[in-house]
């Protein structure tokens, strides 16, 4: 038996977050991944508040989960209604899950002002509902809403609600920092009092991130003897989100010696899976799993990391499925490039002419305003070009863009022409778009597709523009960063020029070029 | 004297973060905002590692900061070199700042493996450098790199390095969790030992967010008697970022009763300003300042919030300049606009029709992708236009831009035509430039100059482009931020459109328009 269990509520509390919506299929897929990863409880939804959640539990019953137990979420019976007659409690039983989690009010203020009933009736609601669910063979988790705020107002009232749940037979009482306003020192102190007062029922913790302390508060509760952590993958949830399990899990396992999952290496992949399923961008700076979580930029740091990885890495990145990233920047020396080349499968020797030539070219481009930090694709092309393992897929002859804005009702008119050669064959194509860059991108693809039909797979995922040195204003250099993808992977490319159109052109062309180079190399291999 | 001072390193450690680059003008503007907000120390850069930072300190000296003290950052002298002869230490003094912060090694492993010198020489390097800087009249902050890792390996060695700094006269020793791998319970315990061992020198804390505990660790240090918190706005910084001051400040002030700034209401605006200046998107779920930090989605929550805001809000959102998102009350968000109008000398009455109309227009534009945080000039024009105290200086009839790139040696050809009316007089002008936006800016000025010769004084100081929603790539909306100046003051204006040329046009026109409006109002006054 684990000393701390993981209770995931991504599918329920997570979906309270803005921009985090899941279809039933999404929820089923996430549930399977959570199970495979080793989460103990999966809260699937609230049958009483959402008819879709009833369907979910019907489908989820067929999933054949290996380890995790499904939980249906709901509230205690209403005031002044027998628990057997409460429709919402009936739906909880009909969800037919091994676990039922109910929440009740632990803050006296909430009982009188929001629920508008008496303290005694509130306790009876908690006790009756727990007992009723236990009588129907469920494992019962009691979520004490607003527990910490309630405790700070009136410890006696708050503890009495937990006692009511324990008397009703709850298997675990969970202390909720519903508003996310409690500090770790308070959590620790209050948890210790709970443990003393209600020693025979394990307690859990449910925190929110409103003070950027969601993870710290969960850890504090575990330190005080907590036996269950509720949270979500990537911290999705209402307002600022729930306790981020993606950070809590490695902390427990790697820092506190509490084994909660059989294998941490799937952590980054699980995190990205949930982002992708919910169509949210990855947060680059996310602890443990973010793209830059083990990225080193300063030349001094890079140097030290090579001498001794522990210098700037608190854990070995591979333990959570992540990897060290060396950012090639103005602050860096040759070591960054050697590592990058190694990752590409084209190892360079330190101090070799090739390595020197590549570094010189990188520095030269950086002086022109290039930055390869988020444009590994352009760096890959630069290395390939320098190594003469590169064949140019097409030759640009000329392009032209035109944009005309009328103030008399007309839509703006925007078009691009592209003239290219592939070998000896010329193509001269015009297309239009929402803006000059969009028009140019469309014209280029239209011109290339008959030579390289595979570029159909590539699309532009992101497009960012910045001015490299603002001093000369519009005459200054523009840096365009493009992210392209083919459904399986994505890559960044960069272009710099005195004007945004040419910079965009360079980045877009490199994005397509790299795709074609990789296809060719894969075909040769 | 404050019991805890705020030390901001957004301009130095922040810029170690991926995608967080600042020009010198950006750095100067941020420094002014930090000063106005009430931050105590502003670490501006590392003169020894970056020639741009030397220039920064020259310019920053002219800023006339009201409260904050500027700090130059660097390292101790090198091993086996007299401190007077160390070039990097010389550059620190030449930066001519009231404060100098130096870092040294507190982890024995780092001394032997990375620095490759002896423990004794390392302590001498720390002591000598502190003493030398004190002799030159500087306030000296000593950053003990890897302090917690070092302490865990060898408490005696780690404490001896702090003692060396104290012996050298350091005004504050700062315990750095350089790798971000330490837990709050460890921070608390170690800080208490530091306080006991080195009672006469105040200690500070510098944390990183690698375990999502950057804020919690800083708070733990303050609980243990810490007197300074180092961090960055929005938590920018290497890897997962630094301690997020944007969360720490309201926690100290609202939760712990430690006053650190005179007025918290500018917090959200400061946070968004730094995002906009660095051309980064706002993180919606950011505690305190995020767009969804006080957003209520669950129907039950909305209901409860209406009955009792404290139900799901740990603080009053207005205290940090944020607002509740569901209950868009007629009065919400108005205060910023009232303050701005007051500053313009056109005071509005709270709740008046004029104030409501202006607020409605701001919300409408924000929905279209506008952001006024770094574009006070556009907000000023919006208010003037709504108040009907506005005379349009010219009427656009049409503009056209053309860009042609040849690969056969030719320079790209880029021109713009502008057709405008001033009163009944038409002007139809063509000009060329480095890019389409530059050409357009030149053509517009050329067209206006015979009507408004004073625009000779105005120039474009900065030009930034970002894509408001990256999902549709080049077809998404573009936001252009322009900073114009007349040598005495500078002002920001913003334009949004599906294409960068029109967005630029809007922002450039507003920049000139505002200048003309101000001239006219000054002439009338």
Describe the SSE topology.
The structure is a homodimer of 525-residue chains.
Chain A (H helix, E strand, L loop, with lengths): L4 E4 L15 H14 L3 E5 L5 H10 L8 E7 L11 H8 L4 E7 L2 H8 L3 H17 L3 E7 L1 H7 L1 H13 L4 E5 L7 H14 L5 E4 L7 H10 L4 E4 L13 H11 L11 H11 L17 E2 L2 H9 L17 E2 L7 H11 L8 H15 L8 H11 L8 E12 L6 E10 L2 E8 L3 H13 L10 E9 L10 E8 L4 E8 L2 H25 L1
Parallel strand pairs in A: 1-2, 1-8, 2-3, 3-4, 4-5, 5-6, 6-7, 7-8, 9-10
Antiparallel strand pairs in A: 11-12, 12-13, 14-15, 15-16
Q: Count helical runs of chain A.
A: 17
Helix content of chain A: 25-40%
CATH uppermost class of the largest domain in chain A:
Alpha Beta
Report the largest inter-chain contact.
A-B, 121 and 120 residues
Instruction: Give the quaternary arrangement of the chains.
Output: homodimer
Q: What attributes characterize this protein structure?
A:
Citramal_synthase (chains A, B), 525 residues, amino-acid biosynthesis (chains A, B), TIM Barrel, Double Stranded RNA Binding Domain, alpha/beta, branched-chain amino acid biosynthesis (chains A, B), EC 2.3.3.21 (chains A, B), homodimer
Give your account of this protein's structure.
- The structure is a homodimer of 525-residue chains.
- With 525 residues, the first copy, chain A, is an alpha/beta fold.
- The first copy, chain A, has three domains: 5-262, Aldolase class I (TIM Barrel), CATH 3.20.20.70; 295-386, no CATH class; 395-524, Alpha-isopropylmalate synthase LeuA, regulatory domain (Double Stranded RNA Binding Domain, 2-Layer Sandwich).
- In chain A, 39% of the residues lie in helices and 19% in strands.
- The first copy, chain A, has 17 helices and 16 strands.
- In chain A, strands 1-2-3-4-5-6-7-8 form an eight-stranded parallel beta barrel, surrounded by eight helices. Chain A has a three-stranded antiparallel sheet with strand order 11-12-13. In chain A, strands 14-15-16 form a three-stranded antiparallel sheet.
- In chain A, helix 8 runs parallel beside helix 9 (214-223), helix 15 (376-386) packs across helix 17 and helix 16 (436-448) runs parallel beside helix 17.
- Mean pLDDT of chain A is 88; it is low at 470-474.
- The interface between A and B is large, with 121 and 120 residues.
- Chains A, B: It catalyses: pyruvate + acetyl-CoA + H2O = (3R)-citramalate + CoA + H(+).
- Chains A, B: GO terms for molecular function: (R)-citramalate synthase activity; 2-isopropylmalate synthase activity.
- Chains A, B: InterPro entries: 2-isopropylmalate_synth_dimer, AIPM/Hcit_synth_CS, Aldolase_TIM, Citramal_synthase, LeuA/HCS_post-cat, LeuA_allosteric_dom_sf, PYR_CT.
